[in-house]
Amino acid sequence: MAQHTPAECTGIRPVNTTTADPTVTSLPPLLRLPRELRDLIYEKYVRVDGGYVYKPGTNKLAHADGPPIDLSLRLVCRQLASEVQGLALKLNTITLETCFSEASQEDAGMHHAINTKIERRKREVTKMFAPQLFTSEMARAVADVHPWFSPVINGWSRHSLPDLKALTMRGVYCGEAPSLWRDCVHDVFRQISKSPELNATLLEESVARPRPTALWPQPWIPADGQQLLELAKADPKPWQILSRAERDKLAAAAHAEPKVPHYKSRTKYTYSAASLALRFLQALSPSDLAAVRQVKLLETRETVAFPECHARGFIPICQQCPQIRIQRSASLWKSVFLVPLLQKADYCYANQDEMDNSVMSRDRLAAKDITREVGKWAIEASILPSLGMPEECFTLVIDGESTPAHTAKLFRVVQEDMAFQNALDLAYNIGYLPLPTWLDRRIRTGYMYEGLPDIIRSLSIGSPIIRCNFDPGQPQDAKKIVENRHGWNLSDWTESWSRRSPQEYQTAAPLPPWHEMRWQYVMVS
């Protein structure tokens, strides 16, 4: 080990050691110990039971049990500071949890409004103008970037008979991860915005379209090509918390304001734990970021702006620092299963008496929504490696909370739906049902996401990216389903999917009843 002079330890000028007091030139007692012993002492000094927790109000960390972090040992001398550098971040897990704050309510609400409104306007404009402006050359350019959507993209060009069903149906992502679908629509929209015929087409459309009325509202139409170009430039990342300047600029492009219908003051708009973690990690110095090892994200309430895809924001960080291990835990009951938009208004304007005595108290989790919502989170996590996430850097935990047995029972719905999707494909392949087009197969009742049956099956045998903290059950036999439905037509299959039993689910203790839990996590009292 290199010998350090007193100057290196204290930062003072060298002194004449033949005349100076020996105590001035002596090393601090800690530095006289062997390095192995010092490392043990450092580890004991910095390691905290429960690790560090993130405080969103300050964008800083604290001890899990509350006190602020004290690393004053680093101030003794430069050598000690060097030897302790980064050790606290390396040895302590950093935990971030979703937490509603009135201070960030409006910012989070506007973040959600901006992302959802920009996505909706791009989809509406694409549906409206693709038949006139989207050329086959544009289609090939987009399909090169998004090959998994090429069958539907090629059908949007003006040189074909456009099949715009995928743009018309809300919540349809052509069987792929929703974030990939939004990326694809964004790129189609950008191509349309570059068309030399854009301004003339906008003028024709504005003249021909009748005035909107309360009974017959019309989709948004940009006033001119410049307004559409501004929208094309607006490409917020849902996982990235916006600065106030960024927020105002994007809100202007989206025509979103902090008032109804874009923002409702009694809604608990909350950033995801993933978004908070990204803000914190991006603020670290390169050396501190390189020291981080374990990050735990607890998604324990409904959050804003397509939270299922927010792990995509960690890809550049994990590429830069592949030693980081990020575990994202998503509560099925509180985070994954969302309150539908129309029902959210009922919850927001209800009071405690109405919760206890009105129709809201009979609200339950609809079985038909379970697999679709679980699938969004699972499919978004599954695509991360293909987008550049280094191996072993990220894990999604589907969290059954404090009711693992009850959650396992509910998860049978997912296994049933996956067997149904596989059975449909088998019925097509053996000729029991007519072979559908690429798009029709992916928008039919009973189809969820491409590859999702394999993802759910992997939960039973051990998946490197996605796991459950409850028993996910075993895959069901699709062949038996097909055998039992020999002679059925497509309507029979569709009707059988809708007749599932039970049709709805309630929570189990110690979780509160379903309607109370949703109310607590949605409404500001």
Describe the structure.
The chain has helices spanning about 5-10, 20-25, 35-45, 80-85, 85-90, 100-135, 135-145, 150-155, 165-170, 180-195, 200-210, 225-235, 245-255, 275-285, 285-290, 315-320, 330-335, 340-350, 350-355, 365-380, 405-410, 410-430, 440-445, 450-460, 480-485, 490-500, 515-520, and strands spanning about 50-55, 60-65, 95, 295-300, 325-330, 365, 395-400, 465-470, 505. The protein is of the alpha/beta class and about 525 residues long. It folds into three domains: about 30-90, no CATH class; about 105-255, no CATH class; about 265-525, no CATH class. A seven-stranded mixed β-sheet has the order 2-1-3-4-5-7-8. Helix 20 (about 365-380) packs across helix 22. The longest helix is centred in the first third of the chain and has 32 residues, at about 100-135. The radius of gyration is 28 Å and the shape is globular.
Estimated share of beta-strand residues: 5-15%
List the quaternary state of the chains.
single chain
* Uncertain regions spanning at least 5 consecutive residues: 1-21
Task: Report the average pLDDT across residues.
Answer: 88
| Side-by-side strand order of the widest sheet | 2-1-3-4-5-7-8
The helicity comes to 40-55%
Number of helices: 27
Give me the Rg, rounded.
28 Å
Shape, per Cα inertia axes:
globular
N→C terminal distance: 62 Å
The structure class reads alpha/beta
Number of domains: 3
How many strands, what sense, and barrel or not for the largest sheet?
7 strands, mixed
* Beta strands, count: 9
